[in-house]
Design brief:
alpha/beta, elongated, Rossmann fold, single chain, 7-stranded mixed sheet, 13 strands
Amino acid sequence: MLEVGQRHDYDVSILSANADMPRSTAARVDGVIVVDPLSDDLRARELMLSALPVVAGEHLPPGLPECEVVAVDHRRALSELLAPEAARGVTRPLLVAPDEHSGWGNLLRDVFDAWAADLGAAPAHGYVRFGGWDDKEGFREVLQPMLQADEEADFVLVSSPYGVLAGLEFLAEHSPTRAVRFASAGPDVGGLLDHVPEVGFVDLPARALGAACAERLIELLEAGRLSPGLRHHAHPSACASPAVNTALNPGQGLPTPLTNRFGMRSLEPSSFVTLQEVRCGKGPCP
């Protein structure tokens, strides 16, 4: 975002974040980027209800006001990740993902449930709070009762590699002979899975999503889609509302708009060289 702002001669600021407390002052900015919007984030909702142009980085959960959206093609990535598991004959799949306040979490459940239905399987669901990406103990608190309740579970998809580690550690301690495969719908940050064999994950670096959001917001600002009081600022500024970024590797150009009243841009594999790369450890999944 910073690089895009600098290239277009826009200032980029970060607004204070507190999902549970409304702002005490008005945001003095010309536009807002809300990355990974959550339906129970009071400050994100305030900004999205304001007269400011807003771009959401990632899918909107139900209940938030409509706005421009730049989103990752998670559906395609998950389909690629899950295809080998279907070929292995999964029968008892489990999913642990962010709760209903996260548009990403809702999408994970939709894709996972459709995939399981094609297998004739009934998936079990566990829920974590979005933002607890590295909370391994939190993942364990959810996974442990799920794995204990279903001793025939044979595949677990989690939203973070920390969830993979939590599940594997629990099984190593309590059921070392159980054969359960794991995969992560999120990227392997810091190489956590480098030494874990046969664990697939979706590689979603953050920079491309942030850059695409900034480009879209600047397009809106320069198209004059502002209230009269803001249109003539000498030094217009774009503003980033902080949240956890999920995105794709940089590629050539920006994706094309897809929708109607509010635009939606999808970051497609054809535009991003290493986009949605599904890996097992350091190499491709078999």
